[in-house]
Design goal:
Strand 3 and strand 4 form a beta hairpin. The radius of gyration is 51 Å and the shape is elongated. It is built from 11 helices and 12 strands. It has about 475 residues and is α+β, with helices and mostly antiparallel strands. Helix 6 runs antiparallel to helix 7 and helix 8 (about 335-350) packs parallel to helix 9 (about 370-385).
């Protein structure tokens, strides 16, 4: 498995990219094939439709001519037919050899007209025009007259007990010539049109993908130390421009995250340096002067500093899990009023000199991660205890439908208006010395805000009527409690 992973990791990504055709090639090939198939199918349909239309017109002409002759024949018999086209019907052989009634020879190869007609009786031509004296086949069919294609339409007429067959014939030469002339045009026009479509698609796709290539080149050149760079945004408002804006937003988030990470590592290193330095100093004094420390003093110092480091690490882990979304994965309904009352009881036991007013706690319920919300309440109360002069006030309200607020107030020195946003930043202590002495890590209020935001809420600090600070956490109400 390691060999396979190493071989895969050693491959050049650009090699894998070159093996497959690019978007430009695939788009051009696909467009060319689709257009070629569409044009070919359209050409076939056009030729078939044109041929059918022209043959239909010729058949209609033949049918009309046959009906005209049939009407004349039905009204007056063979005598009513045009005189110049009447032929003898006494001897079929004479008709077939072109011998007239007066013995005059007629040209057996008489030119065939574009539209011809014929009247026959018992396989003998009674009269005809433009058919060259040849007996036309019966039925609606196609035949050749002197090598030219004709469509023939026939019908029967009864006159004075005699049955005549009337045939109309129309030439198909024009239709066939038109269809034959269309094929070369299509054979030349379709490839030219397909090539033009392919070339146009190639050019247009190349221009459309040019900004994408510039974005790719810029992203490839951005390293972890140059996250402040941004990709070029094309002037258009199409998908490529939206992609560029999305990439820039992502780079901005990455830059912000990297900055926070570096700051977090720097601040954490600074915070851990103090207890480690204290431990080392105490240990060095105990080694150099074993009698300088009271019995158990070294143990107490070690326990105190390790407790500070443990608290700091735990707070860091809570903050990290909150940023990763772990604080909202275990969802349940949480009674925040119960958490506040439990904290009030804890403070009364641990700090007998602190007065806690919990009369303003009303039943409220939020939906979220119970341990994370409990950490929020604990951090708010601990912060108030550290900064109070002896009085705390806890309360809950529902300022508007669908929302609840948890408030923790103290009678301390409060937070200056210009510091009310900064107090929620990591490792910020407005009273540095006092916060360290009281065990503050500078992460408690940062955790409060991050957890609140992860649950769709917010945290803020105002002035308290008690004279100190009033920290408020706003959260959505649980659905079954709204």
């Amino acid at each position: 498995m390691a060999e396979v992973a190493g071989a895969t990791a050693g491959r050049d990504p650009s090699t894998r990219v070159r093996r497959g055709a690019g978007v430009r090639v695939r788009t051009t090939v696909a467009a060319t094939l689709v257009v070629a198939l569409a044009f070919t199918a359209g050409a076939v349909v056009l030729v078939l439709a044109l041929g059918a239309s022209l043959r239909g017109a010729a058949e209609t002409s033949a049918e009309n001519r046959a009906e005209e002759i049939a009407d004349l024949l039905d009204g007056g018999g063979p005598a009513a037919l045009p005189a110049e086209s009447t032929e003898r019907a006494d001897d079929p052989a004479d008709d077939r050899t072109g011998q007239g009634r007066d013995g005059e020879d007629e040209d057996e190869d008489e030119d065939v007209a574009e539209i011809a007609w014929q009247v026959a009786q018992d396989d003998a031509v009674v009269a005809s025009s433009g058919s060259g004296g040849r007996l036309l086949p019966l039925g609606d069919t196609r035949t050749d007259l002197d090598g030219d294609p004709y469509v023939v339409v026939t019908e029967r007429v009864e006159h004075e007990g005699t049955t005549y067959v009337v045939s109309g014939a129309a030439s198909l030469e024009g239709a066939d010539d038109s269809v034959a002339a269309l094929w070369p045009l299509l054979a030349v026009g379709i490839p030219v049109a397909v090539l033009l479509v392919g070339a146009t698609t190639w050019v247009v796709t190349g221009r459309a993908l040019r900004p994408v290539e510039r974005i790719r080149e810029r992203v490839a050149s951005i390293g972890s130390s140059a996250l402040d760079q941004r990709v070029p945004v094309p002037p258009s408002r199409d998908e490529v421009a939206r992609l560029a804006h999305t990439m820039n937003d992502m780079l901005e988030r990455l830059e912000t995250s990297a900055t926070k990470q570096r700051q977090f590592v720097s601040d954490t290193s600074h915070e851990l340096r103090s207890p480690l330095a204290g431990l080392r100093q105490t240990a060095e004094v105990a080694r150099a002067h074993p009698d300088a420390l009271e019995p158990g003093e070294l143990t107490e110092a070690v326990l105190e500093e390790t407790a500070r480091m443990q608290h700091l690490v735990e707070q860091m882990l809570v903050l990290t899990r909150t940023e990763e979304g772990a604080s909202t994965r275990r969802q349940a309904d949480v009674d925040l009023d119960d958490l506040l009352l439990a904290e009030a009881s804890r403070v009364r036991r641990a700090f007998p000199g602190v007065e806690v007013d919990s009369t303003g706690v009303a039943p409220v319920r939020a939906h979220g991660d119970g341990p994370a919300l409990a950490q929020v309440v604990r951090n708010l109360v601990d912060n108030a205890v550290r900064h109070s002069a002896g009085r705390l006030r806890l309360g809950t309200t529902t300022p508007e439908p669908g929302w609840l607020e948890v408030a923790v107030e103290d009678d301390g020195s409060g937070v200056a208006p210009d510091q009310r946003e900064r107090v929620f930043e990591r490792f910020v202590r407005l009273d540095e010395a006092r916060a360290r002495d009281d065990g503050g890590s500078g992460l408690g209020l940062a955790i409060v805000r991050e957890v609140a935001r992860a649950h769709g809420g917010e945290a803020r600090v105002d002035a308290s009527p008690l004279g100190g600070a009033r920290f408020v956490v706003r959260l959505p109400v649980a659905r079954d409690a709204s």
